Each structure stands twice: as structure tokens, then as C-alpha cells.
From TrEMBL, chains A, B:
SUPFAM superfamilies: PLP-dependent transferases (SSF53383). It is an enzyme of class 2 (transferase). Keywords: Amino-acid biosynthesis, Aminotransferase, Histidine biosynthesis, Pyridoxal phosphate, Transferase. InterPro entries: Aminotrans_II_pyridoxalP_BS (IPR001917), Aminotransferase_I/II_large (IPR004839), HistidinolP_aminotransfase (IPR050106), PyrdxlP-dep_Trfase (IPR015424), PyrdxlP-dep_Trfase_major (IPR015421), PyrdxlP-dep_Trfase_small (IPR015422). It comes from the Bacteria. CDD domains: AAT_like. Its EC number is 2.6.1.9. This is histidinol-phosphate transaminase. GO terms for biological process: L-histidine biosynthetic process. It comes from Sulfitobacter brevis. Belongs to the class-II pyridoxal-phosphate-dependent aminotransferase family. Histidinol-phosphate aminotransferase subfamily.
Length: 374, 374
């Protein structure tokens, strides 16, 4: 019988759960809006795709039978992906965004004390999952604003890492490696370390950015998403491509009925509208150019980007970039910035509409001026 | 450097992951349709709500901005739920269906070898999660087709369980306990065992089915969903209600950006349309009566149900019920059945439209006749 008049209840969480903080990898823009008491003028911080999904995807979502559970196999979507990629359906698992798939992948591989390698300042949600399953994260620095495959793989060898994370293109810097360079680097991936290749931004990158090794190469798993170029961040649809033996392991732990049914339909329709994707790719490229021009007009240095955002070097340290960012936030422009020096000399602006980038251009001079004074 | 010419790759899964089967708690209806090469005439097996969600929910989903990530706090939905329930938002966490929330809850509490208690034949997805985190599941039998709270709690005391699962109303039997009986039983819940009270079907149950202990009673956590009476199974929106200290723990492990944005909007709209809910409750009650009548017309015994389905006693053993079920499936009627004796003498039919239940009524005599002959 419970007695609980002695103050705080002692819930019997696992020791690991007990040790974890109640945290969030990113503060959402809505949270910031509520704190400010008003909405943002331009939502340019979450690397969403304001150009939106194919109209066919919007229609498919609207027409879906919401009363039915989604197909636990995501059969039609996997079939369409397999056809486009030239692999079998057994090479593909669909999940609740790359975040969801990363959670399953880390859970499959990482237990208490297992070593994992990533770049210092790379995707925090991956780190969140590693910590959440008791792994030990080893970080290597960026090299000239690029994630550094050879340094990552050398560290993986040193610590006997089970997983090494690499995003190509990179978030938050927008930098990328040519696929051929990654293919060459793979020769140095230690035996027994799986490369977790996050290709969330692959559709906005130049052709040839994905390494041209077979999609079932057992050394790596590729993670892709409908959240970026396909414009369906709200739908939460990602997929992983790898060797069937590895893909099958997801079925041990995934939430089989976890996929939103209309999201499955929306992703399928989005995949079928490659014309819209091409249209968005042009819009993204134009918006990157516009962000770069705005940066240069203000004496700042835009970094080359293969993603749907541009990192802009504010020319001083992290405190200064943070002041610029705060000035933009105060003026209703939602942007984010890297977490770690020296990348945190930059702010990161997601591609936006002409009107949104006009608002960014209008706010930036005052934000800079305030930051210089502060 | 990898060498992998020796046949199967040795992926370094955790020992636990290595030991798990690649399994699925339920085979989805689409999978069965693909195997049969044709669609079902009546989809009456997944306890979905064919009467569907509020038109306002459908509209909210269609109008959502799919290009934006969902609000990681599910602020508006939690606010509306808190207002309706008379608690604060800190008492509520929203997640990817009850399945998703069960996964987080088990992960928080259950590590290698930890004891968990449930009923033999109760919700398999809970068991899947317990196994998936290395827990040891102890099962107690149903008592007269009801889950047996006192037996569950006694077993929990015996094995020092961290969690004990109880669905009220129960799935797959449709039976239920009055809230007052559960309140009385709670006095026997051992200290340190958390009651996981699955109230997925609470909206189709008689008033007074939920125990009238405070919603922040630390002894239990309640799980509810928009998948059943609210008709949004495809949206994957569930919520848990409990003491803030317990609810906060979810933020340690949950996928903060895991909620589908349109699903959040749809659930909020569904919650706001209590008139539609009342309408559905009547339709469900009528359909239960109709299923019961069809059963009686065929000499079978319908069990009383507080859920959106009816378990029908086929009067013999599990093999016989399975033959009836197969006969229905072969005739395009998708139903399911309990897994465990003696409940598996039943088949379970979800509430359907008049046309679907007509199809069920038309198919049942032949299915029964075939089963008797076999």
C-alpha cells in the first residue's frame, strides 16, 4: 500500500532515466513566441521549407482517412522509394522523421558506456538520443567549418565507437563534402563502426554529394527526410536506407503503428511530384543567394551552403553573434546559431520567401548596430 | 577498415537488441489485404472508429501548415485538455498515441530484469515495449473475462513490479470495472508500483468508469487517446495524465519534435467538438447493440462492452473461434480475436456502419457453418 505523505514521491525510474535531465534539444519557435507575447514576422530559424510541399501532398493529407491507423509497413511509400532508389523495399525503413529513426538506431546499438563519435557542434538531437540510452559521446572539432570525416573515423577507431555521426550537407554550417571524398574516406572507417550518414539536406545539395557506394553497403546507413526539400516537416516522415540485415533490426524496436496515416499519403504524393521538388530547389537556391547578398550588404560573410539555410559569419566571437541574433529575435526575425566555437561566430538563416527575407534585410542593420554598441 | 567478405555482417547491436525478435504486435489489415490480393469489405478488426472524427478536425488537419514542425510543447492542446480536465498543463504530456507514450513510460521505468505485471491476453504492444527494454513480464489470468485488479496488485507485490498495466475498459474483452471499484482496489497497490491505467476506451464507457482519485495521484498514470471515440487513429495523438513530477520525466526521453503538426490541430479541434463526440457515442452504442443482436441471431453470446467493439463468445475453444475468424476474413470481413485461452473462444468485432455490419451479418452464418464442419 502506498504511503506518500513524506513529500516528493520516489518514482522508481531506471538509474539512467534518473540521471537524465528533462531537456529539449531545441527551444521551439512557438515557445519563444509565447515568451515574447507575439508572433515572429519571419520564421527563419528551424530550417523548415516555407515554399511548402507539393499541392498534391497537401491534397493527399486532406483526403486521407484519419480514422484508420496507418499501414505499419508503410508499404506504398517504401515501394515508391525503392523504385526511385533502385533498391528493394527491404533496404528501406520509414519512421517518424529522422529524429525518430535516430532514436531507434541509437537504441539498437548503444547501451551503457558504449562509445559514439560526432562533431562538436553537430546535430544536438543525435547527442540527446546517445545520452538517453547511456552512451558516451566523443566529439571532434570541425575543420574549417566542415565536419571532418577522417578525424571522426580516427576518433572512432581510438574509442572503438559503435556509431559515428556525419551530416552531409552539414547542419548548422551548410558545408558539404563531395560524395567521392566520402567514398574515399570510408576506407578509413574502422571495422565495427557504423557510419550514420544524415542526408536530411541531400536534395538541396549539388549532384554527387552522396557517396556512390552501394545503398546496401554495410558500413553505413543513410537517413533522409520529407521535412526539408519536400516541405513536410510537420508530417514527420523520414526514412533510412541500408543493408537489409540492418534495416530489419528496426522492426525489433520501432513503434509499428507509429506513422501518421495522412503523412504517409502526403509523403507518397510529394515523392511523386518531382516537378515541384525541382521548383523548390530553384527557390532554395535563389533564397540562399539573397541571404548571402543581404549578409554582404551588411559587411558580413555568408558561408557557401548546400542546405536550405545559410550560415553567416558575423566576424567576431560567439557573444557578438548572439547579440546579433537577439537583435533579430527582438525584431521578430526567428533565426538560430551554432552552439560551439568557432562556428558560433555565425548566425544561421533558413531560406525564406521574398517578403520574409525583406524583413530580415530590414532588421539586420539595426540588430548589427545594437550588437556593436553592446 | 571494414572487411566484409565473410558472409553476414556482424552489426554490434546491444545484447538486448540482439536478443529481440523482429516482430510486430499486430499484423495490420493492409498487410492482410495485400496477402489476400483484395481489400476487405468491412474493416472491423482494429477498433478504429469508422464514424470518424469531427468535421472540424478534418478541416483543421487540411488547413494546417505542413511545412512547419509541430509545437514541441503541444501547448494549445495541453491547455485545452487541462481546462477540460480541471488540472494544470504540467499534469499532461502529449505523445505519439498511447503506443508512443507506453514506450516512453516503459523506457523510463524498466531496465534489464525489472519486473512488470499485466494480464495474460491484455494489450500486446505494452508487452512488446517491456520486452524491448529488457523487462520481465509477469502475467495473471483474467477473471470471468475481466482484468483482475486485486490479482494484478498481489502479483505486483509478489514480484516487486515497477509497473502494473490495467486497461479499463479492457481490450480485447470490452469488460470494465466501475471507477469506485478501482479506487477501492488502489488501496492494495504496493508501494513503489505505478499503475499504468490505459483508458483508451473511456469515452465509450459509462460515466463513473474512471477511478475518482485525483488526477495527480502519484500511484497511477492515465493514458488516453484521440484514436478511439475521437476518430483520429491515423493522427497518432495520445496523452498521459499524472503527477507533474512523473509527467516531467517524459521530457527526459521523448521525441520533442515528434508530433505531427496537423494532428495536433486535429486533436484540438476534435476536443472542441463535444457535440460530435456525443453523436459518435450514440453511434457506438447502437453498433454494439447491433453486433450483439447479430451474434444472438447466430446462436452466439455477445459479451457486455464499454468499448467500441464487442467480443462475441463462439461457444467452443480457440481453434473453433479461429476457424470462424478465418471464415470471416475469407469473406472480406476483417475482425480479430483474443490471443489467450479462455478469452480466445471469442472473436472481437469493432463497431461499424450499418452497411459494414450488414456485411458482417451476411458473412457470419457461412463462416460459422464452415467452422462447424472443419
Amino acid at each position: 500500500m502506498w504511503s506518500y505523505h513524506s513529500g516528493m514521491t520516489e518514482y522508481r525510474l531506471t538509474p539512467l532515466a534518473q540521471s537524465l535531465p528533462a531537456t529539449v534539444p531545441f527551444v521551439g519557435p512557438e515557445t519563444q513566441e509565447r515568451a515574447q507575447g507575439r508572433g515572429f514576422v519571419a520564421r527563419l530559424g528551424a530550417n523548415e521549407n516555407v515554399f511548402g510541399p507539393s499541392p498534391a501532398a497537401i491534397e493527399a493529407i486532406a483526403q486521407a482517412d484519419h480514422w484508420m491507423y496507418g499501414d505499419p509497413e508503410s508499404f506504398e511509400l517504401r515501394q515508391a522509394l525503392a523504385q526511385r532508389l533502385g533498391v528493394s523495399m527491404e533496404h528501406i525503413v520509414v519512421g517518424e522523421g529522422i529524429d525518430g529513426l535516430l532514436s531507434y538506431l541509437v537504441r539498437l546499438f548503444v547501451g551503457d558506456g558504449d562509445a559514439v563519435v560526432t562533431s562538436d557542434g553537430a546535430y544536438p538531437t543525435f547527442n540527446y538520443h546517445v545520452a538517453g540510452f547511456g552512451g558516451v559521446l566523443h566529439k571532434v572539432p570541425y575543420s574549417a567549418d566542415h565536419e571532418d570525416p577522417l578525424a571522426l573515423f580516427a576518433k572512432a577507431a581510438e574509442v572503438d565507437a559503435k556509431l559515428v555521426y556525419l551530416a552531409n550537407p552539414d547542419n548548422p554550417m551548410g558545408s558539404w563534402h563531395e560524395g567521392a571524398a566520402l567514398t574515399a574516406a570510408l576506407a578509413h572507417l574502422p571495422q565495427g563502426t557504423l557510419l550514420v550518414l544524415d542526408e536530411a539536406y541531400i536534395e538541396t545539395a549539388p549532384a554527387g554529394t552522396s557517396p556512390e557506394v552501394p545503398l546496401d553497403d554495410p558500413r553505413l546507413i543513410r537517413l533522409r527526410t520529407f521535412s526539408k526539400a519536400y516541405g513536410l516537416a510537420g508530417a514527420r516522415v523520414g526514412y533510412a536506407i541500408g543493408a537489409p540485415e540492418l534495416i530489419t533490426a528496426f522492426h525489433k524496436v520501432r513503434n509499428h503503428f507509429g506513422m501518421n496515416r495522412s503523412a504517409q499519403a502526403g509523403a507518397l504524393a510529394a515523392l511523386g511530384d518531382q516537378g515541384w521538388l525541382g521548383h523548390v530547389q530553384h527557390q532554395v537556391a535563389d533564397a540562399r543567394d539573397r541571404i548571402a547578398q543581404i549578409a554582404r550588404n551588411n559587411g558580413l560573410v555568408p558561408l557557401p551552403s548546400a542546405a536550405n539555410f545559410v550560415a553567416v559569419d558575423c566576424g567576431r566571437d560567439g557573444a557578438f553573434a548572439k547579440a546579433v541574433l537577439d537583435g533579430l529575435l527582438a525584431r521578430g526575425i526567428f533565426v538560430r546559431m551554432p552552439f560551439v566555437a568557432p562556428q558560433n561566430r555565425c548566425i544561421r538563416i533558413s531560406c525564406g520567401t521574398t517578403e520574409q527575407l525583406d524583413a530580415f534585410a530590414a532588421a539586420l542593420p539595426a540588430a548589427l548596430s545594437d550588437a556593436i554598441k553592446s
